[in-house]
Amino acid sequence: MNAILEPGMLVRHPGQPDWGLGQVQSRIGDKITVNFEHAGKVVMDGARVDLLLVPDAQ
Questions:
Q1: InterPro entries from the entry (predicted)?
Q2: Looking at the 3D structure of the chain, how many domains does it have?
């Protein structure tokens, strides 16, 4: 699923619901940078976590 992520897309982290809504900043290979409402900018390994795509801001 992470392979389709592009900058600007909205996501949620399945293991960290308290981080809130996140906006993808960049994706280079498996390295994904997301800016979350309550956690700020987080760089993660997309091979280890499948982010949940949010179709529209909720």
A1: DUF3553 (IPR021938)
A2: 1
**Per-residue b or e along 6-30, where b marks 16 or more CB atoms closer than 10 Å to that residue's CB:** eeebbbbbeeeeebeebbbeebeee
Averaged pLDDT for residues 33-48: 97
Which CATH number is 25's domain given?
Answer: 2.30.30
Kindly report the pTM of this predicted structure.
0.91
Q: Domain range for residue 30?
A: 2-54
**Dist CA 18 CA 2 (whole Å):** 20
